[in-house]
């Protein structure tokens, strides 16, 4: 399981100041071990891989430097070498005090190497670094001191998420959509770091200044007119020098697979076996139901580009997603159904894998179509291909019969739905075991994707044409 580099545990360092503020001579810095995190067990992975709730905190802004008016101070000179001509410390006039640095932001970014949200279950709160306090030696001031000098920036906390992550902010019972991350490298700023405080010049302490003759005359003139004058002491410098606090927000991350074709079918139909044959993926295959607990992705190794016609993007080979098996009542949460049906939302087309050696081939296909319809009727309007698998176990007559039965069900479903359910684009007889019909299946999937791309292009053109048209 890939772990995002940003999530590498940070080590907490105990403060090495005495309670009364004096610095200890010898370094007694203790490194506290990370408290034991609750580990996500392998058994629960399939329930947690696509959803996480995590609290993130951006860094506080650093406090600005406060210097007394008219004064300056000595700061270390880093060019100093023992025995050299350079002074050990240099005098810094107090006219331009250093500002505090801004706190670190929290940014989510799509990392193609990350394919789940499991790593977020181990860390409930993730915090960016606080901004450095205004200290010329640590370089936090920058532009105030010298034109063109870069301000020392606090590095953001960058969290890697998989493509297809929807980010919401939790507020009480409500959720606010912050964004959706789809393309590799895409970034989303979720919490802005607090602003650093300004470097300020503190008014000179001492006895109250006697007003000048001019001021006294002015005050007397105003009093003659009946206007009272009050001397106001400037106390704002204190607030100016403080950095603003960072934000703490609770995020809900929800991942939806981004694939071109989703594999659906009853458990044991041979979905994972077919994925292994069509791509370089190596999912677990076994002769018991629900072998697949989490979706597997694979990239088709041959054929034209996925969704060709999408000119903006460089053509990329189609991505196939093998989902866990569906059973009757999946749309209501039976088996693993509901948890994974939502992952079909971003798949352009479907591959129905049917076990042709089953005694009820037609009924198996009908059951899966029905579950899709009940979960989201729009799924039945998508282009799909049927793969009648395990043909090596059937005689030629049985194979023909199975194809006829499945086609009969597809026609019947289209009639009853009054044309809302699509007919399959192709019915291909295959065997993942012997490799029979795999080339035809590959061709049928490519043709289906080209058809989908063409339909998408046509609908976009139609949308553009109808936009400027008044009915
Ligand atoms: N004879 C034969 N057996 C097959 C064929 N394809 C798959 N199998 C077997 O069928 C069983 C189930 O295959 P899987 O690929 O795990 O099926 P699945 O649809 O992914 O199953 P779940 O992950 O449980 O939903 C395994 O024992 C495979 O060896 C085939 O074409 N012919
Ligand atoms: Mg499987």
UniProtKB/TrEMBL annotation:
PROSITE patterns attached to this UniProt entry: G_OBG (PS51710), GTP1_OBG (PS00905), OBG (PS51883)
CDD domains assigned to the protein according to its UniProt record, in alphabetical order: Obg
Matching InterPro entries: G_OBG, GTP-bd, GTP-bd_Obg/CgtA, GTP1-OBG_CS, GTP1_OBG_dom, GTP1_OBG_dom_sf, OBG_GTPase, P-loop_NTPase
A single cellular component GO annotation: mitochondrion
UniProt-annotated stretches for the region Disordered: 126-153
Example of a GO biological process term: ribosome biogenesis
Domain Obg as annotated: residue spans: 46-258
Signal peptide: none
Domain OBG-type G: 259-450
Similarity comment: Belongs to the TRAFAC class OBG-HflX-like GTPase superfamily. OBG GTPase family.
PANTHER family in the cross-refs: DEVELOPMENTALLY REGULATED GTP-BINDING PROTEIN-RELATED (PTHR11702), GTP-BINDING PROTEIN OBGC2-RELATED (PTHR11702:SF39)
Protein name: Uncharacterized protein
Taxonomic source organism: Symbiochloris irregularis
